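Now produce a polypeptide, keeping tokens residue-aligned:
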Amino acid sequence: MPHLVESRRPLAVSALDFKVGLRILARFPGLTVVATLAIAVAIALGAIYFEAVNKWQNPRLPIPDAERAVSLVAWDASASRPNPRTLFDFATWRAQARSFDLMGAAIPFQRNLRTADGNVEPVNGAEVSASAFALMGTPAVLGRGLTTRDEDPGEPPAVVVGYRLWQSRFGGDANVVGSSVVLGSATATIVGVMPEGFAFPEAQQLWTPLRTDGAALAPGGGPVVKVFGRLAPQASLADAQAEMEVIGTRLASSYPDTHRHIRPMVMGYARPIGAGQMLVIRNVMYAVNIVFLLLLAVVCTNVATLVFARTATRGWEITVRTALGASRRRIVGQLFVEAIVLAGLAAVVGLLLAKVALRLGVAQFAASGSLPFWIDDSLSLRTMAYAILLTFVGASIVGVLPALRVTRINVQDAMRNEAAARSGLKFGGFWTAVIVVQVAITVAFLPLAAGGAYQSNRFSQRAQGIGAERFVIATVGKDRENYVLDSASSASRGRQAVSALEQRLRAEPGVEAVTFADRLPVEDQFKYTIEVDFATVPPTSGIRRSTMVKVGPGYFDAFQTRLVAGRAFGLLDHEGGQAMIVNESFTRHVLGSRNAIGQRVRIVNGEVDAYAGDQWYEIVGVVADFGWQL
């Protein structure tokens, strides 16, 4: 008589178990479809988030010799932050550094682009050194990229456009090279079109030559720039950093007033979120994956309940196999493999869903010009491995938990009572506990779901509250060339630009009102710490939190917000006065419903230099809340 030999593996499985798993899926198509879709969605959500974090935290540049592409930053040790005004430093770095085979600078901008058809729309572009095109190593599909000759101030203004801009603004015209456009206030000639996917320094789609002589600038002055480079073939990142520290020491010695605390830093071109800051930022982003594991647990617990009911109907089969010598481990192994087959199918569907979602998301952000060129819609091997991990977690919940329950049988009793064995196993304390845990996890998710729904609806609610469909937005900015002007001249030109924009907007047909503000009313506002000057109240009770927005003339009239007390802003108030208007919510939450007119408040957030200081503001008026606050 042959002897049954029991495997000593933790969960004894065989190829036959996988065939049985496939047959079980076909035998219960309803359960298969429901369970597959449920687990697939959970895996897809986890994979999408993991891939997004991975792309931001472990960026990979799609360019030749990507590991040699670097950014150079002037780190202000006294303020613990970068000093972005490094055009003077860039000129010195490029002249003295030998660890790089190329170095360049870029100044991003947004300017209006007027094409031959008279259409004018803003575009995101950059003034760049010609070395940017050498760094990217990508030839133009039409014409050429920028060259060092284009950087000569005596050369005609040249512009290179990106593929997406070429398609959207020029209709893919093959004869676009050589045509003229008006960029800002200057006329330039298009000399080339770059291929699809090309962007620099991040998502820009138009490039002009950088013609500023950084060495002629005052130390610590000039526009905000991004300095990039490529390491020489024999130089390492550590070699370059050591050399830049020596150059930084020389600059600090020569210009102590501006460079005493400046430390040049060399780092990878595409830096992770939180680079140069506390690692807790990155750790928190990865820790959020716990949320998706909990979501998977909830989904798989629901599926496990269905699988338990299905498995329980196989009670007689399990009883007979046990009686013939199959161990509990062997039966649990088979049921786990069946769950692996189900979860594996769900993983394939989930990854397909994740791929589609990423493709749509990347396309949407790329079209808006807000996605760095190194972010694509591919799924990395890390994400694949993460999906496999989720698959095994899901299979463990779906397969092992029901299997442990249904294999707790008394073979002799079950054989004597065949009818009971065939009728299926009943829910007991163990499975009741599983369901209780499932309900508990689901309840725990309710606040998160409610919070997410609330946040997703906040913008639309606010937009409806002000009738946002009736408003359009225009922006005005100072062009890079104006940085050489003194502050008084710059402020004067800024006022002239605002006045010109206002006149043009008022002249547009259908425009009823024009106003200005430093933040849109539907945007989330930063909350400042407000100190109230109550003479009869202890100082600690005068500290509150509130938002603040700088507004132009006619702001409240434009949004049809009525004045309920006091007066509106006058001309002198807009010319640098110390007046403030608050809404009714402010009087309730900050002033305790006291009479607001005449009260004085000030901002005590030391880190917010736009408002903070010793300046007191006098409340001169109270307006009604906006629509979403009523």
